Amino acid sequence: MGHALSLFLVITFTLCMLWGLTVPMHTMMGSTQVNMHMHEGWAAFMPGFHWSIAGYLIGLAWAYAYGWYTALLFVPLYNFFNRKSPG
Predict the structure, then answer these.
(1) Is residue 2 part of a domain?
(2) Model confidence over 27-50: pLDDT tens digits?
(3) Is residue 64 part of a domain?
């Protein structure tokens, strides 16, 4: 479960980085200018992340770690609350 969730977050992070490279920083939606990038959001949750190759590698490490953290927290909780009662 830990590897699967970590891989999912790494792929999602990579897709967001590719999105940031291909889509303009600001886009007009009607008369409002909208920021279409996520790097400010990633930087808040991934210390050391910035918009560079080294920052991308740091982001990959954080995404993988957050996957394992989530699995280590939720799998035991799921097993605890999903156990069968005797009888």
Answers:
(1) no
(2) 666 677 666 667 677 777 778 777
(3) yes
pLDDT for res 43: 73
Supply the range of the domain harboring residue 69. 51-82
pTM for this structure? 0.73
DSSP character string of 26-76: EEEETTEEEE---HHHHHHHSTT--SSHHHHHHHHHHHHHHHHHHHHHHHH
CB-based contact 61:48 (threshold 8 Å)? no
Over 90: is that where the pLDDT of 5 sits? yes
Domain count, the chain: 1
In a domain, 43, yes or no: no
CA 67 to chain centre: 8
